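step: validate -> pass
step: tokenize input -> pass
step: predict -> running
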Amino acid sequence: MSKKVLFACIHNSARSQMAEELLRKYAPDDFDVVSAGFEVSTINPLAIEVLKDEGIDISDKSTNSIFEFFKQGRHFNYVITVCDEGNAQRCPIFPGLNYRIHWSFEDPKTFEGSVEEKLQKTRVVKEKIKAEVLKFIELVRSNQLKENFPNNWRVG
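step: predict -> pass
step: emit ->
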């Protein structure tokens, strides 16, 4: 049975979308993964563009509300917040939750500069997310998450 994972951030427009799609790409049979935000928005065009580098097209996706998932009584084995520390605390506690993990990443919405400069910064964020996703997959598959919890991850 696949583990249920929720990636959460503020608007579900970039970081959580990238994390969801990268986990889906690299471990399609191991996890049932979704993403959601506290304040639903639209998908950030920068996220759409950098995921194309991975062969992933999210141009037709919409965003989800974390509170809708909570009201529906959805259960998750892992809730992973990918926003800044202060906003990670806004995530509700889900029933049956095994792990609440926080990975801190910069928000592409705040990037300044030319479109190409913003894209480059978003690619850096995507690569950081990818590294954490791959580490997560390895630790869950090897059943070593408790014993080898990475120092830069915070458990809530």
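step: describe -> Residues 115-141 form the longest helix (27 residues).
step: cleanup -> pass
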